[in-house]
Amino acid sequence: MEDDDDLIPLSALQHWLVCPRQCALIHLEQQWQDNRLTAEGNVLHQAVDQAGSESRHGVRRVTGLPLRSVRLGLSGRADVVEFRPDPDGGEVPYPIEHKRGREKPDDRDKVQLCAQAMCLEEALGVPVPEGSLFYAATRRRQLVGFDDGLRRRVKEAATAIRAMLESGRTPPPVVIAACKGCSLADLCLPANLSTASVARYFAKGLAEP
Fold first, then answer.
1. SS3 96
2. Residue 37 near residue 183 (C-beta atoms within 8 A)
3. What is the predicted pLDDT for the residue at 47?
């Protein structure tokens, strides 16, 4: 059995899909710093990070549920998993991931949620066909179906992250739209600078004693 220390955090999937360099800085170089956006996300997750369970109207709701998949090499926690009754007398897991802000134009949040579902399937031996993303800005759930394409994206991202970690190499800096709100922008210099600013940045560094 693979040791938990060798498993990739579920959060790394989203980091990788936003920016491979960001993922490497966090999970390879162990660098991190908060900004307003990440602080807001931390506050949002406080209510669901603590392990707990309650039942309402026949639905069992578990928060802070530990997850792992040896097959995918992933581990982490689910914010919320609702265990809904099925006609056969069993329960159908329904993961819910809490996010600040609004729905993303890409599939980063969906991939992370699908990975949670795949962890639940491996642990419980039951299908997990769908789940939801809850966005704080809209206070609404977005239904996500875990189709073959999304499951393939999970496997591809996990494989790519594993290769990056085993190589020990951080990808080179690139300038993308996500740089503007990235809490690691200062650590990632000169990735968030224009070409002219990069020259000034290195010139300043060479001039300092």
1. strand
2. yes
3. 53
